[in-house]
Amino acid sequence: MPAQGRNFPHALTYYGLFSECLAAIGRSAPRPPLHQTFARSSQGIDEGNAAALTVADVVNRVRALGSDSGRGLRGGRWTAAYRGEGIRIRLAGVRFFEGLPMTGTATWVPATGSVRAEVSGPGGDFSIDWSDETASPSISRTA
Fold first, then answer.
1. Is 103 exposed, middle or buried (0-12, 13-18, 19+ CB in 10 A)?
2. Which of 22, 82, 97, 135 has the highest CB neighbour number within 10 Å of its CB?
3. Interatomic CA distance for residues 87 and 61, integer angstroms
4. How many CB atoms within 10 Å of residue 130?
């Protein structure tokens, strides 16, 4: 079932309503600026952090698109399925950075904001955990 059918926050619906309101008064909706350090390449970025950014991007895509499948920013595919209170996400060659495909699984619990992922890529295998209550993810190399 698509994520939107499960009634969790849907950013695109909000953005759509916001755009309609602004259009009614003759203004266009602002576009969020990209951070200047969003590079296409992972060069100079720790491999574990690159893996965590890839997982975070996919979780945000699931949240924003309200879909049960989609494509990564720079390639690969993901699927999402509900499992109890959480959403199980499968990554297949998903690339947030060029040349750094990630494959594995992540479980996101929308009620708590917690994410637990096990992913593999050219830089190794990683276990990643974070929640809305932590300032940064816990990342460990598993192989």
1. middle
2. 97
3. 13
4. 20
